[in-house]
Amino acid sequence: MSSVSTKPLVGIIMGSKSDLPVMQDAVDVLKTLEVPFEVTIVSAHRTPQRMFDYAKTAADRGIKVIIAGAGGAAHLPGMVASITHLPVIGVPVKSSNSIDGWDSVLSILQMPNGIPVATVALNAAKNAGILAAQILGTSDAQTTANLIAFKADLAAKVEETATEVEQ
Ligand code: RP5
C-alpha cells in the first residue's frame, strides 16, 4: 500500500490529553491505511477560541474530515460541526468521571437537525479512523485499495479463527 499525499487530510482532535489513549486507535488505523492526518488537543470548554479557530481554518488548510473525541459533557464534535462544513465524526470517550459513558454518547449523538455528527460507538476511535478513510476513499483510488486490503485482512483473520475452533 502506498499513499501519494503527505499533507494532512484528516484532523484528529480531542478535548484533553486524557482522551489520547482512546484516540490513539484512530491514529494507528490511519497509519495502517496510509491516510495523512494531524493530531491536536482542542477543548470546547477550556479553549473555545482555539476550537473556533481550528474548525474555521481546517478546510482551507486542506483537511477533508475531522475526527473529534471528547468525554463527559462532550460538546466538541457538535460545536466543531457547527463551525465547519467538513464532515465531523464524533468519538464518545468514556472519561474517568463518566456515568458509564452515557454522558459522552448522548451529548455527541443527539445533534439538532441541520448539524450532523457521525457518531461512532463508545471509545470506538478505530472505527472513526476507518470511516474517515472511507469518506476519503470515495474520491481516492489508493485509499479505497488500502481499505479493501484492510477488510480482506479482517476477513482472513475470522476465517483463521473459525478453522481453529471448528471441531
Ligand atoms: C472532556 O473532559 C475531555 O474530552 C475529557 O474526556 C474529559 C476529562 O478531561 P480532563 O479533566 O482529564 O482533562 O473535556
Automatic annotation (TrEMBL):
Tagged with keyword Lyase: yes
Catalyses which reaction(s): 5-carboxyamino-1-(5-phospho-D-ribosyl)imidazole + H(+) = 5-amino-1-(5-phospho-D-ribosyl)imidazole-4-carboxylate
Database matches in Gene3D superfamilies: 3.40.50.1970
A GO BP annotation: 'de novo' IMP biosynthetic process
One GO MF term attached to the UniProt entry: lyase activity
Keywords: Isomerase, Lyase, Purine biosynthesis
InterPro entries named among the record's database cross-references: PurE_ClassI (IPR033747), PurE_dom (IPR000031), PurE_prokaryotes (IPR024694)
Amino acids binding substrate: 16, 19, 46
Pfam families: AIRC
Enzyme nomenclature, EC number: 5.4.99.18
Function: Catalyzes the conversion of N5-carboxyaminoimidazole ribonucleotide (N5-CAIR) to 4-carboxy-5-aminoimidazole ribonucleotide (CAIR).
Similarity remark: Belongs to the AIR carboxylase family. Class I subfamily.
Protein name stated in the entry: N5-carboxyaminoimidazole ribonucleotide mutase
